């Protein structure tokens, strides 16, 4: 019978850490034609590591790192955590900061040693303050390697660049191959810049859309075909609106509570291959019913 097949699909999903909030998820997942993935913490591990410190002329590494850490001190953003870990490892003294403020999707600003300072994408620095980050060409090279580069400024003076690398999850490329075999499209949505996004998505084998603000992700999901056919996978607070907009919103288990609450399903073991697994399970189940 119908309920029995669905119930058995729900429990077989649960055994592999796929938590589905009801049988309607199975019906909807059987019809998915495209999956949209958040990048950080979903396709990647979400724990970036500082790989390069590039001080501007006349600035030393310690000053670059300590200023960046002071600005990021109050931020829970993965990039902030990477900078703070590196500063702790290097043992630099972090000056006090006041009035830290996130520039959503772009960076953070704060008062450091009585002067305004900020850490942001090099692009945001150029757009908002008209200051070209030192070594813009160098930044582009690092981004083409899949690294995320931020520029550090104090008193409108460039202090240098910090590059970070967030490794793709071990099974992400395999998950993309499995989606292709199911004839399901895949797109990565990210706030990161187009060069970094192209490097990572090229390596994994999916399409990408870069420099997306949270509301852009929402619009992108809507444009991808509306309710029913698009599945969105995300982990962060920023992803909650997009998870809600998608026909099916799926949270990565180690993500935030907000994402888990909003989603229709959760992948508890953080395996990207559980996405094609969910689609296969759903198609099989609905095929049995028909
Ligand atoms: P994602 O979609 O990958 O989660 P976000 O929207 O959080 O990206 O951030 C987009 C970009 O904004 C980052 O790649 C970075 O350039 C900049 N940014 C955001 N938050 C910070 C921060 N705390 N420190 C430095 N840069 C940041
Ligand atoms: Mg994110």
Describe this structure in words.
- With about 290 residues, the protein is an alpha/beta fold.
- It folds into two domains: about 1-45 and about 170-290, HAD superfamily/HAD-like (Rossmann fold); about 50-165, 3-Layer(aba) Sandwich (Calcium-transporting ATPase, cytoplasmic domain N).
- Helix content is about 45%, strand content about 25%.
- The protein has 13 helices and 13 strands.
- The protein has helices at about 1-15, 25-30, 40-45, 60-70, 80-90, 120-130, 135-145, 170-180, 195-205, 215-225, 240-245, 255-260, 275-290, and strands at about 20, 35-40, 50-55, 95-105, 105-110, 115-120, 150-155, 155-165, 185-190, 205-210, 230-235, 250, 265.
- The longest helix is centred in the last third of the chain and has 16 residues, at about 275-290.
- The structure holds adenosine-5'-diphosphate and magnesium ion (MG).
Comma- or semicolon-separated keywords:
290 residues; alpha/beta; Rossmann fold; Calcium-transporting ATPase, cytoplasmic domain N; 2 domains; 7-stranded mixed beta sheet; 6-stranded antiparallel beta sheet; 43% helix; binds adenosine-5'-diphosphate; binds magnesium ion; P-type Zn(2+) transporter
């Amino acid at each position: 019978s119908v309920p029995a097949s669905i119930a058995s699909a729900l429990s077989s999903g649960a055994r592999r850490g796929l938590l589905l909030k009801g049988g309607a998820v199975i019906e909807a997942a059987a019809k998915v034609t495209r999956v949209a993935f958040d990048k950080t913490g979903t396709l990647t591990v979400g724990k970036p590591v500082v790989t390069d410190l590039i001080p501007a002329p006349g600035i030393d590494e310690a000053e670059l790192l300590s200023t960046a850490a002071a600005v990021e001190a109050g931020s829970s953003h993965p990039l902030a955590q990477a900078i703070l870990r590196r500063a702790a490892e290097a043992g630099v003294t972090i000056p006090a900061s006041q009035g830290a403020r996130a520039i959503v999707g772009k960076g953070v600003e704060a008062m450091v040693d009585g002067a305004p300072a900020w850490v942001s994408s090099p692009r945001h620095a150029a757009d908002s303050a008209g200051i070209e980050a030192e070594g813009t060409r160098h930044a582009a090279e690092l981004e083409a390697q899949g690294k995320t580069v931020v520029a550090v400024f104090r008193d409108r003076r460039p202090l240098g660049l910090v590059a970070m690398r967030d490794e793709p999850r071990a099974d992400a490329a395999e998950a993309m191959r499995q989606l292709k075999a199911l004839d399901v499209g895949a797109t990565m949505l990210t706030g990161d810049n187009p060069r970094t996004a192209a490097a990572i998505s090229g390596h994994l084998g999916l399409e990408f859309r870069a420099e997306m603000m949270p509301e852009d992700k929402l619009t992108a999901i809507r444009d991808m075909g509306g309710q029913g056919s698009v599945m969105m996978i995300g982990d962060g607070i920023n992803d909650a609106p997009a998870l809600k907009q998608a026909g099916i919103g799926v949270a990565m288990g180690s993500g935030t509570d907000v994402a888990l609450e909003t989603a229709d399903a959760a992948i508890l073991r953080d395996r990207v291959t559980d996405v094609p697994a969910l689609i296969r399970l759903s198609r099989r189940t609905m095929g049995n019913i028909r």
